[in-house]
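Issue: ligand-bound run for nickel (II) ion - logging full I/O for the record.

Environment: standard queue, default settings, no custom constraints.

Inputs:
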Amino acid sequence: MSDLVRFGVSIEEDLLEVFDDYLEEKAFANRSEAIRDLIRSRLAERDWEESTGVVAGGIVLVYDHHKRELMDRLLDLQHDAMDVIVSNLHVHLDHHHCMEVIAVRGGATRIHRLVDGLRGQKGVSHCSIARVGLD
Ligand code: NI
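Outputs:
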């Protein structure tokens, strides 16, 4: 492990209050430990996004299936991404909302194009991806 270096950070007071609540909730020993964790986590995400190799993950999508033509658009996008979609779980959450968990494996750029396409559809209220490293 390399030497620790100190640096100053300027931050809005109300943002710091929220951050302090977060680190208490997550039981971090101190702000430094929490900041290091967030930096590592963001850099790992960036590595995944910029990876040229094969990556894997799970896309979680929530949408209102009553929105006109939304189901068709979501299905079209998924059929265009058959090369990276491994499996798809559909859950009817309530009268209006459906959740899909889409397992993906393939090129990161290709997967991110799919996520961006899904997220951008009107009627999609949640679209996130859990990234899994394969190294
Ligand atoms: Ni449904």
